[in-house]
Amino acid sequence: MALTTLDWLLLALTLAVPIAVGIAQGRRAGRNLSQFFLSGRSLPWWLAGTSMVATTFAADTPLAVTGIVAASGVAGNWLWWNAALGSVLTVTFFARLWRRAGILTDVEFVELRYAGRAARVLRVVRALYLGLPVNCLIIGWVNLALAKVLSVSLGWNRLTGVLVGLAATGGYAALAGLRGVVAADLVQFAIALLGAVVLAWYALSAPGVGGVAGLQAALPESTFRLWPVVGATGVPASDAATTLALPVVAFVAYLGVQWWASWYPGQEPGGGGYVAQRMMSARSERDAVLATLWFTIAHYCLRPWPWVLVALASLVLYPDLADREAGYVLVLRDHLPDGWRGLLVGAFFAAYMSTVSTQLNWGTSYLVNDVYKRFVRPDAYETHLVRVARLTTLGIMLLSGLVTFWLESVRQAWEFVLESGAGLGLLLILRWYWWRVTAVSELVAMAAAAAGFVFVRGFTTVPFPDSLLYLVPWTTACWIVATLATPAEPMAHLIRFYRRTRPGGPGWRRIASAAREPAPAPLGPHALQWAAGCGAVYLTLTATHQMLFGAPARAALLFTCAAALVVWLVGRLGRDAEAGTHSRP
């Protein structure tokens, strides 16, 4: 693809402006670790929430969605739409707790919740596991996506694409800290979203497509369904109507198991990862709650549809394409006018940088706060720790570049992370709400999940997501048995945790009684809020689908119902957050 002078100018601006904004806003990052990793706990809800959305809008996401639509139609996106159930759970149950905990990383939570040698071992294991192999894998698959984009659009090889992407991101992430990262995220999200919408417009207008009506005439009806198709197998078949359809068994695995059972970055059960980092960075509990709600609505309801439309258009424009993920980039290359091509390549860079800068800062926080500061140099000055953090950021950047050359597809990496963490989710939820969970529970769960993954991938032919139906019960059974067979955490430690975070529900009644504190708050109101939030998200998702594919009256009704639920939910969440702030000792 030949870029004009205007294209190169717009591409340069989309790279330079976010970096300049990030560095300018991140000048305070060198003061201490709280500034470098949590922006001094001062982020308003709209900035923290938009940063979450920007981080999940990586260069890999539209490519992966294109591959999903090619394999299973629109309904194939339940692979990740199911996680809205967990995101709303974080909004209603966990956002206040993470902000209230007053910790620097979600791994530090381990020694807040547990005590003794097992807690120390778990903190090191989780920090090293998440900070190095998992984090480098995530950055690696984002690198892979950008390399595909640059290969198709500019003719660059993978090495050149990775070097340019990491060089553009790693430097300002190391200098700017979280405040600079989230400020750049705001600009990068606007650029990336504009690019996605523009590309969808030109894709639908391309010769041979003919808009949404043309897509519906050219592709099997099942391709456009939002729900699974009974009898579909999920593998290529002679009947095209079943080829592009989501099997019911996959839908059951996604919606019934995956959202609560598997660990995945950005949609961890119980919060965690960079979502927890943003919640802990918020200036109040109310801001933490509203930030996560805005992220959930934008991530699942508003942003996916431009990607889906381009994916559908690519099926019509390139019916014999071997690498379906590349179809998204081919639309960019072949059907955009001068100027827009440079902006769209810049939009991919913006999406890439927002994700990688967060991953670098997030992964570094584990290695510096939870390993180096906790166990190597607990007496180090804050300025020294910040210097170590900046050097560690660059080190992770280099390691993740190497991982990129091991990966073949974005979906391959997604499935690896979901399977290797299958069964951890329920534990990550219950450790907040059941006093009996221990550090040994988490260590056993991690070991069982790893062993189960090795067995399923090494000795069986069970495909994903059917594998979750075996891995989740195995891991869950292992950690529950370990929990009941080992001693509980010391009562004094549990009382300190309860007084600090005030988790509700019957799982803490025994501790509240021992501490001579009032009974824990009931969880029923939170469960009602969760149901309302899930209803709002999926009503909006369905309404958008109906609006795009020919049922505007039904879409209007669904949008109205969703809006009513959101208004009620925001009012309840705001009042609960204020009440929780005033009621704590």
Describe this structure in words.
By secondary structure, the chain is mainly alpha-helical. It has 26 helices and no strands. The protein has helices at residues 5-25, 33-38, 45-56, 60-72, 78-81, 84-101, 109-113, 116-154, 158-205, 211-218, 240-243, 248-261, 273-281, 285-302, 304-317, 327-335, 340-376, 382-404, 410-420, 425-433, 439-459, 468-485, 491-501, 509-514, 524-548, 552-583. It is globular. It starts with a helix and ends with a helix. Residues 235-242 have low confidence and may be disordered.
Structural class: mainly alpha
Distance between the termini: 63 Å
Give the helix proportion (percent range). over 70%
Choose one word for the global shape. globular
Please give the number of β-strands. 0
Helices and strands, in N-to-C order?
A: HHHHHHHHHHHHHHHHHHHHHHHHHH
> Mean of the pLDDT scores?
88
Cα-atom radius of gyration: 23 Å
Please describe the biggest sheet, giving its number of strands, its sense, and whether it closes into a barrel: none
- Count every helix, treating DSSP H or I runs of 4 or more residues as helices: 26
Strand content: under 5%
Pick out the low-confidence regions.
235-242
